[in-house]
Specification:
211 residues; mainly alpha; Glycolipid transfer protein, GLTP; golgi apparatus
């Protein structure tokens, strides 16, 4: 499995492991495993062809911006989402709102996309309907609100070309279908946890609508 991961292939286990490492005992969300989880999710999106490139390209840009923050002079302030929020809010909310390259704004964009993936993966796991329907429902309940009409229209058309649920479970790269469903079942609660901690943190500091 490691060889496949090294070759840049997607494996759901990798995403599971990353999100598992995200949350500390103090309920802080560590940025390094968060970005690691996202790199896996991006590979997942890319393995589906161009359908999701409007989301994956954006996610790639956001992840590399955050990597720059983490690797920069202020890197120690970007260990967790909580430390990042404290650091970036120190000059005040107005100053933070004026910045287009802040970690908070960047995480918020990933956070919204994570909601869509979370809902879509949940749908894939229960597998009641066609993947195009699952994906569209997940999108309409999350990201659609933040996209202009043109993007929404293009997305909904693109989702119609999605492979079947079986093909998706195969893309997960964790063995037979039952195994993929089991690993999804294991991964989703960790993703949910990271999502809800982030949502609460950003709501508390009035960061959910950063421009």
């Amino acid at each position: 499995a490691m060889a496949a991961a090294a070759a840049g292939a997607f494996s759901l286990r990798e995403v599971l492991e990353a999100f598992k490492r995200c949350v500390t005992e103090q309920r802080e969300v560590l940025l390094e495993p968060y970005l690691s989880g996202w790199r896996g999710l991006i590979r997942f999106l890319q393995s589906l062809g161009t359908v999701f490139s409007f989301i994956s390209k954006d996610a790639v840009a956001k992840v590399s911006l955050l990597e720059r923050h983490c690797g920069g002079e202020q890197g120690q302030q970007y260990v967790s989402l909580q430390s990042m929020v404290r650091h970036e809010l120190a000059p005040g909310l107005a100053a933070l709102r004026a910045r287009s390259d802040s970690g908070c704004r960047t995480v918020l964009r990933l956070h919204r996309a994570l909601r869509w993936l979370q809902l879509f993966l949940q749908g894939l796991r229960s597998g009641d309907s066609r993947t195009s329907v699952l994906c569209t429902d997940a999108y309409n309940a999350s990201l659609a609100a933040y996209h202009p009409w043109v993007v929404r229209k293009a997305a909904t058309v693109a989702f119609c070309a999605l492979p079947t649920r079986d093909a998706f479970l195969e893309i997960m790269n964790v063995g037979p279908r039952e195994e993929a469903v089991a690993v999804l079942g294991e991964a989703i609660p960790y993703i949910d946890d990271v999502y809800s901690i982030t949502q609460e943190l950003f709501a508390q500091h009035k960061l959910l609508d950063l421009p």
